[in-house]
């Protein structure tokens, strides 16, 4: 167990000190205990390092809102305990951390297993909407529906104790850290970089996973040069919990045969030599990718002041949501296109990107101005934006009460009617 400064992660070791290190990374809403049933077999060959995400499993609540930040904290933790080179297996968000490590720190990552993960997790809107739900209602709605996302129906019915354990694991997570982790997933997208992952990679997925299923797994296999696919029958998203024996066997085969020699021979890590493993459950497809891989990033701007359009489009999407921005851009034509470019570049790229106010404060100012101007259509989608920017319904109510004093009661009356409907829609958990 560990003492945990804000720049590191809560961790534990299992297994012999002289063995090579194998890291196991958790999924959002889980703790290192999701890997408990793999440990007895894995410690026969490896010194297993498990960690908790911030605010999960009793870990200190120091939120991290990007996968890069989580990876940096993990590396700082490993540096503190003297681990330089390692194998890495991660589930979902834990898998995203593994990809980040393999891309940014290839000299330290010996081999990789990506379990129930994806190069991009759904849409940014989905995870930011989940953050709105948690901020308004707490984690209980998310906790109660977690078994539906994590397990097949048959497993959940047959294993009520494990199902209840899953619910309690989410329920006891720090809400602020959960919201930050949602933001990390919302901003994660390495589709255009998969070809630079240069370590042997096992992509492992449950056949019935409805969160990051076989389609996402095939995208990874198509993009990573040295990757192979394993589909575990009868398993959903938390496949290490639902099918522990199959997952353990796959991990042992992969890491026993795929451990690359360390680039730096002074690290003290030793590869385990084993006969080549037989094919897992499915060979990596040789055909064209089933899912579309994102195109390479656009070239950098020439020297000088950067164009604010791309920054504005990014902020506009983060604040208003992809669906809203996509609709606005799709409806533009030769007549309105210049206006869409204007507001993207100047309103979002110049003003919303200024450092003088944070997004919460800018939402407060924007709501007040829209009430004063009677712009109820824009008030609706900026109320949604305010929730995404971190304002609670109670804080939005206070903004509208303040506006009633200075903008007039009739204007505020209309504004309350619009905002009330939006808040109900955005904060009511899905059944």
Give a structural overview.
There is one protein chain. The chain is an alpha/beta fold. Helices cover 50% and strands 9% of the residues. It contains 18 helices and 7 strands. The protein has helices spanning 39-42, 67-81, 93-104, 124-137, 140-150, 153-158, 160-171, 175-186, 214-223, 239-242, 244-258, 308-320, 322-330, 337-351, 359-373, 376-388, 393-407, 409-427, and strands at 11-14, 21-25, 47-51, 86-91, 109-115, 201-206, 227-232. It has a 7-stranded mixed beta sheet, with helices on both faces. Strand 2, helix 1 (39-42) and strand 3 form a beta-alpha-beta unit. The protein is elongated, with a radius of gyration of 24 Å. The chain starts with 10 loop residues before the first strand and ends with a helix.
């Amino acid at each position: 167990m560990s003492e945990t400064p804000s720049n590191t992660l809560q961790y534990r070791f299992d297994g012999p000190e002289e063995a090579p290190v194998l890291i196991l990374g958790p999924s959002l809403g889980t703790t290192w205990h999701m890997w408990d049933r793999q440990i007895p077999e894995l410690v026969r060959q490896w010194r297993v390092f498990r960690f908790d995400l911030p605010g999960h499993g009793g870990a200190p609540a120091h939120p991290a809102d990007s996968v890069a930040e989580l990876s940096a904290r993990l590396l700082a933790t490993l540096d503190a305990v003297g681990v330089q080179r390692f194998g890495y297996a991660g589930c979902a968000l834990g898998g995203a951390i593994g990809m980040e490590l393999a891309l940014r720190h290839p000299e330290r990552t010996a081999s990789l297993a990506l379990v129930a993960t994806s190069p991009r997790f759904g849409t940014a809107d989905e995870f930011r909407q989940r953050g709105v739900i948690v901020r308004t209602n707490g984690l209980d709605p998310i906790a109660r529906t977690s078994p539906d996302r994590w397990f097949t129906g048959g497993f959940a019915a047959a294993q009520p104790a494990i199902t209840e354990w899953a619910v309690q694991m989410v329920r006891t997570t720090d809400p602020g850290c959960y919201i930050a982790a949602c933001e990390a997933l919302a901003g994660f997208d390495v589709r255009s970089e998969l070809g630079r992952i240069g370590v042997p990679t096992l992509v492992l997925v449950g056949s019935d996973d409805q969160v990051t299923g076989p389609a996402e797994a095939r995208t990874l296999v198509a993009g990573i040069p040295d990757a192979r696919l394993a589909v575990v029958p009868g398993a959903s998203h938390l496949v290490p919990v639902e099918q522990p024996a199959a997952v353990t066997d796959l991990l042992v085969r992969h890491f026993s045969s795929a451990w690359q020699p360390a680039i730096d021979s002074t690290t003290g890590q030793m590869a385990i030599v084993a006969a080549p493993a037989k094919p897992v459950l499915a060979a990596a497809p040789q055909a064209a990718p089933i899912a579309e891989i994102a195109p390479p990033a656009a070239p950098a701007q020439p020297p000088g002041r950067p164009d604010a359009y791309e920054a504005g489009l990014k902020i506009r999407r983060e604040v208003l949501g992809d669906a809203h921005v996509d609709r606005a851009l799709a409806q533009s034509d030769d007549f309105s296109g210049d206006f869409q470019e204007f507001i993207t570049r100047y309103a979002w790229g110049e003003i919303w990107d200024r450092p003088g106010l944070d997004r919460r404060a800018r939402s407060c100012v924007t709501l007040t101005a829209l009430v004063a101007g009677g712009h109820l259509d824009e008030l609706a989608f900026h109320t949604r934006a305010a929730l995404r920017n971190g304002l609670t319904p109670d804080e939005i109510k206070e903004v509208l009460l303040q506006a009633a004093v200075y903008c007039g009661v009739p204007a505020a009356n209309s504004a309350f009617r619009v905002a009330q409907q939006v808040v109900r829609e955005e904060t009511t958990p899905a059944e």
